[in-house]
## 1
Amino acid sequence: MSSSVLYMSMSLDGYIAGPNDNPNNPGGDGGAVERLHRWGFTETGDVLRSGPAGELADAMEATGAVVAGRRTVEQVDHWKGSHHGMPVFVPSHRPPGPSVANYPLVTYVSDGIASAMAQAKAAAGDRDVMVHGAYTAQRAFEAGVLDEIQIHQIPVLLGAGRRLFDGSPTRIELEVVRVIDTPEATHIRYRVLR
Amino acid sequence: MSSSVLYMSMSLDGYIAGPNDNPNNPGGDGGAVERLHRWGFTETGDVLRSGPAGELADAMEATGAVVAGRRTVEQVDHWKGSHHGMPVFVPSHRPPGPSVANYPLVTYVSDGIASAMAQAKAAAGDRDVMVHGAYTAQRAFEAGVLDEIQIHQIPVLLGAGRRLFDGSPTRIELEVVRVIDTPEATHIRYRVLR
């Protein structure tokens, strides 16, 4: 059965972006996002296709649909219309911005995270659904529709920025599925226990 | 040469204790500390002496001195006077509470974290210094006197409590020294790069 998987690069102190991230300042101040994603790219900026990083990139691109938060998609202009050809579902109560009219594979879902996830799972078929964004992850946890977490934990303390996990009303137990140990990142995959 | 090593069990969302931790409520609300340290104990509450957990306990107990924050030591009443026979140094601007008069191996240091660390290193000789506590870790980072971090990352999202890393003015690069992968915890040891 297909799973919904949160994919995020995170510093040891829990940050996924710098301070003040918004569409006019993608990734926030101070190059935090570049630092957090360095493990997945060559020095010239291409996606790494070899070793553990290459396998993780292949797995991400083999997912069948994306559920991503509005803050995320607006900072990357909806990946110009799809994520490696995959449809993108954005839970949001507000209508989308004008660029979305040009993106037939981008769907704004106004009736909540569970609906967005159901639509994404239907689109993904037997492939996994990639989940992205801190706020969206939190809502997916609360609604019980997040199956796994793939954290790329980066050996850096950023000290400030946007946190992936910023408080939650419930305790959630996880199960370690797999750890990939490289100098650039500790890649830990968890299953969410419910 | 001996190193100063921060040893902490931390949830994936960055917590090391529950909300409202204080001497009258050790570890805070909700049993967070018990959950975070379960990896190191048997079901009857003894320290685990076998496997990776046993090796980590041995390494911790083989350190030669402890630098621990006042919040931590007051919640465990200074481990009744020593930490497995090791002297304990507590950086604090306020005079110690009355129980400390009975603890010859506990020293309150009023002139800052660097001084506390220097005294602990002198006491430890060629053994490592164990560092404990969130506030103390932060001060040790800022003063440049923390050499390594041993994080026991626990597969749980606690949602609330006291964070190990709660904002810092500087970015700090780390180097992954060693990862020990068990179902109960992902034990990651980092060197602090300066």
## 2
Amino acid sequence: MTSPERLARAYLLRVAEPPAPALLTFVAEHGPVGAAEAVRRGEVPEAVLQETSARREIDLAERDLAGAREAGARLVIPEDDEWPAWPLLSLDVATGRGAEGVAAPLALWVRGAARLDEAADEAVAIVGARAASEYGQHVSSELGYALAEHGVAVFSGAAYGIDGAAHRGAVIAGGVTVAVLGCALDAGYPAGHVGLYDRIARRGAVVSEYPPGTPPARHRFLVRNRLIAGLTAGTVVVEAGARSGARNTAATAGALGKVVMAVPGPIGSAMSVGCHRLIRDAHATLVASAADVLETVGRLGTGDAPQPRSPRRRTDGLGPQALRVHEALGERRGKSPEGIAAESGVPLPRVRALLPALELDGLSERCETGWRRARTPPPRS
Amino acid sequence: MTSPERLARAYLLRVAEPPAPALLTFVAEHGPVGAAEAVRRGEVPEAVLQETSARREIDLAERDLAGAREAGARLVIPEDDEWPAWPLLSLDVATGRGAEGVAAPLALWVRGAARLDEAADEAVAIVGARAASEYGQHVSSELGYALAEHGVAVFSGAAYGIDGAAHRGAVIAGGVTVAVLGCALDAGYPAGHVGLYDRIARRGAVVSEYPPGTPPARHRFLVRNRLIAGLTAGTVVVEAGARSGARNTAATAGALGKVVMAVPGPIGSAMSVGCHRLIRDAHATLVASAADVLETVGRLGTGDAPQPRSPRRRTDGLGPQALRVHEALGERRGKSPEGIAAESGVPLPRVRALLPALELDGLSERCETGWRRARTPPPRS
């Protein structure tokens, strides 16, 4: 038995092209069933009419839900436990602030094994250009792999290039990845990724707010981007040209108060121009590794992402005068303290005091002709 | 006739290993001639004695000055018009703040056609790793070339790798470049750059605070770095490993209140790790072009460095509803306004109003079966 709420939301998803902020508010006030009734009759405020009049007579809710079931998909609605209410709150808040075009979805069509709320609990978006370079695709799939391996769900837009590589990396790691589409689940777009959707659905999910049969369109990709930004803690742009939908996702993420990150690349690469501008002009955080991403979204300190440490030199702890004395020492021939003082410019009494101190550190040694650098440095603990 | 001030400073430059903040203050109080006399006699405060006792009996001032003359070099002292007093003020200010190891130089040995004060007037430092990648060397020489071509003097440390490439780029552009050494002008170091020094000196300058015969040493490179940072408006790090002297120059530049910039690179390159950390952790400004560098140090707006503009789409000015209507239009077959309304989700009356508006923009056209996208877009003014 399909609940009336689910039927009502399936109907409304087909009637109103998202985002539909006026309808969303109307549903919040009257509940989905009452709101759907009013929309059907056309007895709604002008703003809601604007969003619903064109398609309000089309009611395919029963058929859409049955078709989804057949295709192994489901309609996740805010009344379900699975609804990712917490991350999507950012969209409500942004709408309240008057940000245009970022209303929350009325419901989401979902296919896949993952629970949407659990996937969104620790999630990062990896997005970027379709016309990605080999470098970008490599970086994207490595990032997807490493983040998935650390238990982070990788969200992306399922496009060719950076998006696909990120999904693939996460799939190979056996992790959770979620594809959010700008068309219906059954649109078969892009054609080359239909097989990938099946692999994603095994542990992750394919998600869309568009009813069955909806074809892709540029404005739908832009609208979809708010979901990718909203459902995750932060967005990583791997490659983006001077104009790129990925930069739109990044801008939306920023507007929603999420973390915006970008991967740098060679400055001669047109595909890194967008990333460099994001870092330079929009203060996106530069990320050069999965560890950087985890640190930026605040997962560090859990012990599972050690930061690489700078290599240390044996002379690192020395003060400026000790360093100068050490530099003045010969590799083979010993030198007198007087000679070392003249060469280093360090006063003779200080040289006399520093030489034995360096010896204790294993950095200098006495020989017949005076002092020289130690030959066999002891292992450092 | 050599002035007593020049003789005194030549003597002090050999006596005190820079930086010598106590001696610098002592010279400011007593003048170079009086200060040199007191140092010779050892009648100076304890802090000055620390900096001068080891070598105060060595007086080769006459010989050093004569040797420099023969080699086509000169000693530039604060009493000269050529002294770059204004940029070096940053070192005095930093010393006053208690920053260690950044005292101004007592004088500078200079070889080359450029006046030091004029070169430092509009100057940028380009520094980086010796073990630079091909990418890094290419970027460095291109940056050096472009900045020199814009009348900016390119300062660097004359090392192999990034430094040498920056000098070379500026030389090829016929511009001014200044090499600041961590050894004497006559040390012949690094051996492979002796010929480059001659080319630099033709229009630029080779500079050192070390008296003739001083060999290179690691601590001298670190000390020299403060001059590169101090003499320029900003420092660009092109490539740097996890540990790199270039990062030291950048840190010093930051401490002196100068602009710190870094060039990104492929994240897999060990030679870009230092740059990425500078941008990520130390808030260095990402620069991906000479135009970025000029903008960052504040030369933009002079009209000689136009920023590349984003390409524009013909649909850029459209609102969300117009965009949706435009997307719903077919390329060949015309559609009815009713069909377009259903497909786009835009209310029919709005569709009827938007279609002629799109026609005026050259984006839609009427045909026998309804409306479709315009086939021959008119040129956009």
## 3
Amino acid sequence: MRIVAADTGGALLDEEYNPIGLIATAAVLVEKPYRTATVSRVRYADPFNYDMSGRQAIRDEAVLAVELAREVKPDVVHLDSTIGGIEIRKLDEPTIEALSITDRGKEVWKDLAKDLQPLARKFWEETGIEIIAIGKSSVPVRIAEIYSGLYTAKWAIEYARKNGEAVVGLPRYMEVKILPGEIAGASLDPREGGLFGKIPADTEGIEWELYPNPLVRRFMVLEVWRKD
Amino acid sequence: MRIVAADTGGALLDEEYNPIGLIATAAVLVEKPYRTATVSRVRYADPFNYDMSGRQAIRDEAVLAVELAREVKPDVVHLDSTIGGIEIRKLDEPTIEALSITDRGKEVWKDLAKDLQPLARKFWEETGIEIIAIGKSSVPVRIAEIYSGLYTAKWAIEYARKNGEAVVGLPRYMEVKILPGEIAGASLDPREGGLFGKIPADTEGIEWELYPNPLVRRFMVLEVWRKD
Amino acid sequence: MRIVAADTGGALLDEEYNPIGLIATAAVLVEKPYRTATVSRVRYADPFNYDMSGRQAIRDEAVLAVELAREVKPDVVHLDSTIGGIEIRKLDEPTIEALSITDRGKEVWKDLAKDLQPLARKFWEETGIEIIAIGKSSVPVRIAEIYSGLYTAKWAIEYARKNGEAVVGLPRYMEVKILPGEIAGASLDPREGGLFGKIPADTEGIEWELYPNPLVRRFMVLEVWRKD
Ligand SMILES: [Mg+2]
Ligand SMILES: [Mg+2]
Ligand SMILES: [Mg+2]
């Protein structure tokens, strides 16, 4: 099975480890044995000007996932929204009403569906590929989350080159290592069976430290700075 | 403390990783230091003809646990049902009504109790050993789950010998390794403190691969095939 | 950021692994990189005479944390109570009523606030340091929990010297090792990013064993005995 998935993660942090805004949406192609991505794409957000309501993320994810899926023609596309694995192209109002989610979630989805349902229907009509809202149960969505952390580290390196340093929060229980010519990352949850990723990056002249976010258990902070 | 426990797990999967039916009920004797089984028994189900409602599993588990308990005379028997550690022999209708579980759960247990309550009472009258519905809190129940995964791997090997290959899903966050003459397995959750198991098996002429189930995070898929 | 936190953990167990009472309240100073304590303090309870309602623990924790905070002057104090990170000095009745916790939780906090709110207000007036009820989200609270496990092991050694042996339950998913001259401990959850601790202890003439509590998954039992 060949699956495209997308997720958004990584946050710029202030001095007290509060998130200012999210950084990276990643889309990935995941193939058997489903432990890493064979292709990945990123779209960076502006963390200084970020809509933290969550709607920006899911829209960006759908658009980036469809872009990658047009190229690599997967069997299915997974989005990080836990509404029971439903096909996005079928999300009309009665279907949303019938979901077992909160009333607030229904309002959000009625709003989101205005853009996403036509996008998904058009994509399905052209390619036969379904986009499903499978959420946290999907391993490819988790791999996309790990890649959003890798691209967050890359963004932090570029930010530190210009501004001296950067402090970012990674997605849940994952680590990154900044190595010569690449950034490597992995899930810290062994129950996931060994999920990991890496991306090429210019890492010269950069130093870094990774440590637990003291205010948010199971999330790591990455600090990156210019070696004078 | 010497504890007998039973659990059911492992599923035959179709090509899209959907479960067709469950495979193995395992009963185990667990003794101090409570990390593995000193004795184990299996009863295989027919995954092509499986009642997925959950009632078949708990009945099979109770019967197999009692069978093993008659032999090894433990201090207590643990079943995988989370209804507060109550003794099964005491499950009459008013007691079930008073449980803090869903109405649906109460209907299921009124039905189950018809068989299990007399079984547990008879066993207790003869041996003085209680059968309790302790569920996920019990380490021996988790060890029984790991053994159901080991026996699922054994079943998959035998199925592959006849049919060329088998694709099975293991119980939650556990791994197996097919070694010369045996199958070894272990929990992937280090918080559990190192739970593991092994069973003898004829593993000659068999190849295998283990990888994350892409549709169900924290569950592994085992593929087994005949080395022609 | 320099954070003081406190937590209570470790239980004396009877022969069937049932808790008799809690053993140790630990307060810790945690500094960047937030993986262990740079200073720790303990107050032992009497497990044979312990109020298991939970009110004794939070009171002991607040008092011990303030004691340590007076010495080491942290930026903030974290307590293990999950009521949304609220400042304890602001806990008057209308504020407690407005918390999104159970009615029972509100009654407990109205009672607790009688002692803790004046303590926190006085401490804040004198030092400017806030005491916040951040709970499980705090890494320093988790490190305090690990230290309560270390001090529980120390208590068990002293108890075994007098009485021959001791059987104690450690806080959730952590391990300890009794080494020459010290007790080392660590979280068993790798998602936490490598939290650990150690304390000096006279460990001569002591033998020990660590194993999973068969009745409470993800909790370890420590047995300690005198090498006659
Ligand atoms: Mg997401
Ligand atoms: Mg079960
Ligand atoms: Mg506590």
## 4
Amino acid sequence: MEKVYITGIGQVAVGEHWDQSLAALSSKAIRAALKDAGDPQPEIVYIGNFLASSISHQANLGALVCDAAGLHGLEGTTVEAGEASGAAALHMGYLAITSNMADCVVVVGLEKMTDMVGDEIEAFAAQSGDTDFEGMQGLTPNGMAGLLMQRYLDQYHAPCESFASFPITAHANGVNNPFAMYRKNVDLDSYGKAPMVSVPLSLYDVPTFADGAAALVLVNRKLLRDGQKAVLISASEIATDTLAVHDRADPLAFDAVHISTTKALEKAKLTRDCLDLFECWDTPSIYGMLSLEAGGFAERGRGWQFATLDNLALTGRLPVATLGGIKAHGFAPGAAGAYQVLDAVQQLRGEAGRNQIASAQVAMTQAISGAAASVITHILRKM
Amino acid sequence: MEKVYITGIGQVAVGEHWDQSLAALSSKAIRAALKDAGDPQPEIVYIGNFLASSISHQANLGALVCDAAGLHGLEGTTVEAGEASGAAALHMGYLAITSNMADCVVVVGLEKMTDMVGDEIEAFAAQSGDTDFEGMQGLTPNGMAGLLMQRYLDQYHAPCESFASFPITAHANGVNNPFAMYRKNVDLDSYGKAPMVSVPLSLYDVPTFADGAAALVLVNRKLLRDGQKAVLISASEIATDTLAVHDRADPLAFDAVHISTTKALEKAKLTRDCLDLFECWDTPSIYGMLSLEAGGFAERGRGWQFATLDNLALTGRLPVATLGGIKAHGFAPGAAGAYQVLDAVQQLRGEAGRNQIASAQVAMTQAISGAAASVITHILRKM
């Protein structure tokens, strides 16, 4: 099987880009990634996007993005897996290289939330859950996360501040990331005083919707140049669970996280101890917590004891959100899975600046859509 | 590169399935396809869908469809390329097998139009064109096709009835297909009297939106059983053009058809003469015509002389729409590209009943989205 290397990354800062279209955002990220990779000639572009159809009334992004980026005539296709779409597009790029269909593929995670404003946005975001049985009844993503957090607190008698480590860590790491939307620290005191969004979920437990585009250039061995800074994709694994949470025997189990993580580690022939960092789905913070447990990093019901500030810090046992995570980056849903990989690539290249994890060799990234209805895990290695 | 075989097909008849959800439609097609393939255990499901986000407010179909079909935990991802989404999903399935990521993949084209009624449907369908510069100005898919047809008639001094061969052929072939929505003949007289939709485009020149699901089971050599009726995928090629037609030097050129067709024939090491049938994008009929020209089956501007009833018939030089095409099948946009392949598979298996093309060995299928902004060509061979 042909090996797959990431040789270029490019991103626009997540934010409210009122004046920039889907075409403009994606082009900027793609051109930056191609330049970073030494301007190879890609043959395929995969676009990870969640909501352009509902929010921007635009589908067929394959043609739109190729055209806008000056990549005329190329294969261009959209890949959708809810909020994990960016990671799903990377998975397809991985397949295209391993299958020898292409020597060079561009992957871009893309989301434009500000083409619409108001309550509708929250309703659209609920499309990653079960519309008929959840969304239609008014259950939004934050509503679902709040229910699961309440269940967690009740079932495990965990204190509310158990979840604070995720946003505090993410915000601390976001301070040094010029592409992060929020670049200020949050402490336990302000976490405790934050207004409630969906009890017991507070403002710091949930992501902020925004626009974004993050691109990656993938090549095979043949196109890899000597001395080029490259990152190997050791595994790319997708798993699904029931779409509706009420269909699960155990709502806190996050089975798809377990399946996806286990398969990825097996494929990469690695154990959890080998990971130097884990770009987990850090927000809603309850999802970060459940992914640590389902992923086997902490025992069931004991994640809150594992997820201390010390353990999750850049120098900790399992650094997460190392350049701000989704919480401090801002949340461009269909792009988030790609931003996670960009952050991991920067760590493995030793380009994470003041957030650099010393001698980082192996990183795992994990994108979650819905209440872990789809989970996509990638394992990356420094070359 | 691992070879890819289609060993199972399953479909629901295209129609107005008011009482059936996305989950129900896809499950029926998938279960039928798996049964047809001898019930192998798939590892991945790719869903081709165009408009579920806008029409059914449901994304994350990967989890929905896997769950509904009883395929718990599998990789499930949505692939979107406008009206060509079903073919795009097949392309991804092809990649997953050739890359050795999976031994068995299920592909399903899926569309549920009747979750919404009224004018909005036409506006949503326009999402496969350029929303900012075409759709937003009121240019619908039928509007665009009408403009291109007018241009064709003017530029080449072709008679209006030049296009009649497409719907007449499709309807004639649909009569014997139990899965077709329209099972009655149309003649030149009724074609000439049909009400106009977008002058000079009449009712018989355009497709009818409806619900549908069509599934395919793909396996590699290892899972192919002796004596199993299988069809080889010899090529799967996607190409894009500018999304907006006004950005093209020649609006009648359909460059993406040319690129996709040429690449597919090269990959399959075949010439056009080798094709026993061509499941072309037969409606809007102008797109059928332009795809014959751009695909190299007829000279530029002479397609209308080539596209006679005799030439396109089951016994003709280039049989098209052999089981009713999109026109008689009914048009479930995201599923149409998959239905085309199902029809071709039936021909190659010798299961096309009264529409059987004698000793059919090689078939080409071609799905078009927007005004040929994305084009996906597959070449299939009898085993």
